[in-house]
């Protein structure tokens, strides 16, 4: 009987952990989406013709630690960069690009993306 109670308790706790992790993932993704939508993408030429304050470089990276799987698309990484710009107080971004690498440290494949963050004054 104790054995069955232990198994049931373990399954119950596992279920709670899975739901908690999933909820956290969804909340993080929703936050990134909302923040990223507040940031406008510009080319380097466009940003040079505007009244701006340079806020700095933003970066994001992804490490694929197993042989199976795929790297996320650049659109997902760019969304993360836009969210980082908004967290800095910016509303404009100029993408610099993404670099892929294979067998880099503990990663079978990795990608790193960079962008410049700006605060654009529309007055």
From TrEMBL:
It comes from the Bacteria. This is RcsF protein. It comes from Shewanella gelidii.
């Amino acid at each position: 009987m104790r054995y069955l109670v232990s198994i049931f308790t373990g399954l119950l706790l596992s279920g709670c952990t899975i739901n908690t992790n999933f909820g956290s993932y969804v909340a993080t993704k929703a936050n990134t989406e909302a923040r990223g939508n507040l940031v406008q993408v510009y080319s380097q030429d466009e940003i040079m013709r505007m009244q701006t304050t340079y806020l700095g470089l933003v970066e994001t990276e992804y490490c694929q630690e197993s042989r199976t799987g795929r790297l996320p698309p650049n659109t997902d990484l760019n969304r993360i960069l836009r969210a980082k710009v908004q967290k800095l107080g910016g509303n404009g971004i100029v993408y610099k690009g993404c670099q892929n690498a294979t067998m880099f440290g503990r990663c079978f494949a990795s990608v790193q993306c960079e962008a410049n963050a700006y605060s654009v004054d529309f007055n």
